[in-house]
Amino acid sequence: MRHCCQFKPDDIYYLRDNDLFSSRQLAIGFCPICKKPVAELTEWRFDGILNKITSSGINANDLMLKHNSEIIYSQKECNYRRFKSKPFGWKYGLNKQAKSGGKNMVKQYACDFYGNKELIKSSPC
Ligand SMILES: [Zn+2]
After folding, report:
1. How confident is the model at residue 84 (pLDDT cuts 50, 70, 90)?
2. Domain boundaries in the chain?
3. Which residue from 41, 69, 73, 79 puts its CA 20 to 30 A from 123's CA?
4. 112 alpha carbon to ligand 1 midpoint, in Å?
């Protein structure tokens, strides 16, 4: 994958085919030069045209969230099954509002794409 330079993805997620595209992959990694997270979606359209979308920084998070439900498995997943309870690999941020002692709180979670979730911080909003 590519950002400031060409680099190896940290992990590759394999996505379900949809009506238009097949052989869909979402590669994620961190640019070794600017350290930004980079997500790269590649998919082949039914008529043989390659569609490629690259996002970095906060947009990489959005791209992952958008395709989260289509992930079938990831390259790393098998290797990391033993860490079932804690988020691993690519993590994304999730904010949830909750009431605690009559106050509105924002709870920040770090989530991975295998359903693991860890509370990072809760603060009044
Ligand atoms: Zn970069």
Report:
1. low
2. 11-75, 92-124
3. 69
4. 23
